[in-house]
Hints:
Blueprint: H1 9-14, H2 22-36, H3 51-60
Amino acid sequence: MSAPSIKTLGELKKSNYKFLSIKDELRENLIKKLQSQEPIFDGIYGYEETVIPEIERAILSRHNILFLGLRAS
């Protein structure tokens, strides 16, 4: 069964859909990227040795993350 053809909860259950929390899905995706040595945060520069390792550890540990700061406009 493909995703677009699923229209009811019963069909979703029959498709053996595996529910993941957001934290678990983020963790799974990060592990896949680390194993394949893909760039994790492509386009973010200057934080490779400070912020990015902390974010990776937080995601792997399933911690709650709150980003504070100003947005560029």
